[in-house]
């Protein structure tokens, strides 16, 4: 791969977008490599992923403006679909994905972080949807996911004004869960991922699916989705061992979660 690297550490995989010359901007090749990288993840041995950007300045500075600059209407729509398909694959990926946002997360960068389950960022992170300043709309899910995450009013303000926000404001509006000094970001993300990976994998996957699928429907349908995924956990080895450990009062085995600090 030219622009995406993958490293496995125990049950945790780290996907890094590595196109520093363009501040990790997403061109077609990056999108294709991201798709291939996620599809190659061994789900038998991986329980959580971290998505980050190479370098100390940028997570992802957006979709590639050079590549987009000459597109026709039909090509623009197809490029939007290409990004949306990859981001939806990330959003619905069976295991959790943590975005470790290490700098600029603009346009497609903010959008890819929003397709992840959890966002944490460094103090130098900058979020924004600058597309209307470029004469386009956010096209990789920004008009949909930002409103769902931070509310319609704040999303509209950010998108219409194209104003970027710093890490502390992103934290204040709930776009990120926590802010860390840059050098602590990846270690914290790895600790969090290890904590997730220490829990019952089928249960964690079912939680992701229950939340994702349930958020798309009304509460009556949502609780039925939950019931099915709850029921699906029973008779698994994890359920038997997890509850067995509790009942046997085996404290060593019960303490599976590695705690992480949320500043
Ligand atoms: N596409 C292509 N190249 C990009 C890029 C992008 N989105 N963002 C940065 N780059 C390139 C620059 O062109 C520059 O390349 P050269 O060295 O070859 O000139 C290199 O990365 C470094 O960038 P700057 O010199 O601009 O760095 P800076 O520190 O002065 O500024 C920045 C950093 C504020 C992030 C600035 O680069 C910037 O504003 N980038 C564009 C951000 C943006 O508008 N993103 C949204 C894109 S549209 C989109 O994403 C649509 C969608 O929803 C699908």
Number of helical regions: 12
Order of helix and strand elements from N to C terminus: EEHEEHHEEHEEHHEHEHHHHH
Q: What percent of residues are in strands?
A: 15-25%
| CATH topology call of the largest domain | 2-enoyl-CoA Hydratase, Chain A, domain 1
User: Could you tell me the number of beta strands?
Assistant: 10
The name of the CATH architecture of the largest domain is Alpha-Beta Complex
Give Rg in angstroms.
Answer: 19 Å
Portion of residues within helices: 40-55%
Spatially, the strands of the biggest sheet line up as 1-2-3-5-7-10
Question: Could you characterize what this model shows?
Answer:
The protein has helices at residues 28-40, 65-68, 73-91, 108-114, 142-150, 152-161, 167-172, 182-197, 201-214, 219-233, 237-247, 251-254, and strands spanning 4-9, 12-17, 48-53, 58-60, 97-101, 104-106, 118-122, 126-128, 165-166, 178-180. The two termini are 35 Å apart. The radius of gyration is 19 Å and the shape is globular. 36% of the residues are buried. By secondary structure, it is an alpha/beta fold. It folds into two domains: 4-197, 2-enoyl-CoA Hydratase, Chain A, domain 1 (Alpha-Beta Complex), CATH 3.90.226; 201-256, Orthogonal Bundle (Lyase 2-enoyl-coa Hydratase, Chain  A, domain 2), CATH 1.10.12. α3 (73-91) packs parallel to α4 (108-114). Mean pLDDT is 95; it is low at 257-263. The strands form two sheets. It has a six-stranded mixed β-sheet, sandwiched between helices. Strands 4-6-8-9 form a four-stranded mixed β-sheet. Acetoacetyl-coenzyme A is lined by residues 22-23, 25, 61-66, 83, 104, 106-108, 111, 130-131, 134, 138-140, 142. Residues 22-23, 25, 61-66, 83, 104, 106-108, 111, 130-131, 134, 138-140, 142 line the site of acetoacetyl-coenzyme A.
